[in-house]
Amino acid sequence: MSRRWIQNPNRCADKYLDGIEDFIEFARRHNPGATRIRCPCRRCNNTLWETIENVGFHLVKNGMIETYSIWNLHGEQVDHASSSNAPRVDNVEPIVDPNDQVMGIIHDVFPFASTNINQEGEDDVPTPIDSAEFEQYEKLLKNTNQELYPGCESFSVLTAIVELMHGKIKYRMSNLCFDYFLGVFKRMLPTDNCLPKDHKHAQKVLHGLGLGYEKIHACKNNCMLFYKEHETLDTCPICNESRFKMTSQNRTTKIPQKVMRYLPLKPWLQRLYMSTHTATDMRWHKEKRVDDDVMRHPADGEAWKEFDRTFPEFAADPRNVKLGLATDGFNPYGVLNQHHSTWPIFAFPYNFPPWKCMKKEYMMMTVLITENPGMSIDVSLTPLVDELKDLWTNGVHTYDKSTGRMFTLRAAVMWTVNDFPAYAMVSGWSTKGYMACPVCKEDVTSSWHAGKVCYLGHRRWLPWDHEWREKDKEFDGNTERRLRPREWSGDEILEQLNRLDFAPFRKTVSRPDLLHI
Q: How do beta strands 321-327 and 343-349 pair?
């Protein structure tokens, strides 16, 4: 029987559930009378024993170990007499040639090389090919066809680099560790091998596959980015701070005071449509979602539906992307430096089905800030905001692998995900003091108690005839006669913001409480 279902990421699919039933039946047949068996889910990893019923539940919840295609720990026999030690399994999946896999990746990145792409609404009109892109394609093709060393048929130069870089990321190897092993492998191979000597040279080979990042210099005081019209300046026009550090006059290269990494969003969104599987899943929210008033996905929520009613032109094409943004700070050095924090900003598409949209494989880091930006996170978000505005207004021309045609991809940010302290940085609303509640706003009930600011008035949300409204001694000594605070519309909040006079965002200038009006 085929065991392709083990690789299926959709654990609610009929084929996956049928595969679990086949496995349970197989385990019962080969372990008669057993009440407990090894659990092959990803969490138990065949090391814990569970009841057969719990094993089935674990496989749905956690998924089966992807490499466990030979069920030898559950009674499957292996033919040791065979010279190849091949297990007795029917319909074993063929081993895919890694060189063919890498060639498939290149064809996905450069679809013009293998597919006649037509403009949407136009027939037989080839997409113009950028000369720089074609040069990158030729370099990658050369490395794909070049043997790792003379006579090597298993690995090309590009295939070897892709395999090694995949292992580096999967097992979290540092650059120094990767350089060491790359040097060892290079010495093990014949002297005329073409393996790169270190991580830096390996990255140069993979540069043509795209999804790189840009280094953008920033002012030391977070006043601005040396970006667009300010890219050529050497000093900050706001605080007159130098862009570069003071170094020896003999040094040929200048060292910037502060650097921010920005990963462009458009190539990542385009890449989602370069694979047939992901391109189809990006339309799941419109074509395959069951609309039965049950909340399973953000598309079932009222906010999503209201957005579609407000912007019907955007909602007409299910390939347009609805994004979420998330950010938080963490200390990558553990306890070595208690004052340092790094702030990545991630984007994730809500178009995917629920079992994919929040997976790390489909999240992309768009901005990497190497220190706590505080209230000046607005400055670091400038390139991302500019790109999101362009994606909303103009879109980007994208090739859809599932249809073989070009279309204009647009994107919109639906929600941001962050904790309450980060909420102050992202939204500008102060989360400290007596007016910190973003729901009650100026109608907040707060007081000083036991050395802290406490927020009261929760009984305002109860029904008008609720008994707790009349109780005073059990709460703050007062009965509650007030209605719940009114909800502010987006237009009203925007009008408040337009009346504010923002101070420069920088370290040496304290930022006022923005929305305490």
A: antiparallel
What is the pLDDT confidence band of residue 78, given thresholds at 50, 70 and 90?
A: low
Q: What percent of the chain has pLDDT over 70?
A: 87
Phi first, then psi: give them for residue 164, nearest 5 degrees: -65, -40
Tell me which DSSP letter residue 352 carries: S
> How many residues are recorded in the chain?
517
- Is the four-CA dihedral 283, 285, 291, 296 of positive or negative sign? positive
Residue 437, C-beta contacts closer than 8 angstroms, at least 6 positions apart? 444, 446, 455
Average pLDDT for 306-310? 94
CA nearest to 69, candidates 50, 88, 47, 83: 88
Q: Rounded to an integer, what distance in angstroms lies between the CA atom of residue 458 and that of residue 304?
A: 29
Bridge partners of 396, per DSSP, are 409
**pLDDT tens-digit profile of 380-429?**
999 999 999 999 999 999 988 888 888 999 999 999 999 888 888 888 78
Nearest CA among 392, 363, 368 for reference residue 380: 368
- pLDDT, tens digit (0-9, with 9 covering 90-100), for 456-486: 888 998 998 899 999 888 887 889 888 888 8
d(Cα 377, Cα 282) in Å, to the nearest integer?
Answer: 30
Q: Is the dihedral of CA 265, 270, 275, 276 positive or negative?
A: positive
Which residue, 110, 115, 157, is CA-closest to 133?
Answer: 110
For β-strands 405-409 and 36-38, DSSP reports them as unpaired
CB 331 within 8 A of CB 338: yes
The per-residue pLDDT of the chain, averaged, comes to 83
Write the CB contacts of 221 (distance below 8 Å, at least 6 apart in sequence). Answer: 236, 238, 239, 241, 506, 507, 508
Which of 466, 413, 469, 460 has its CA nearest to residue 440? Answer: 460
Instruction: Fill in the DSSP letter of residue 460.
Output: G
In this structure, the dihedral spanned by the alpha carbons of residues 20, 26, 28 and 32, taken in order and rounded to 10 degrees, is: -170
pTM higher than 0.85 for the full model? Answer: no
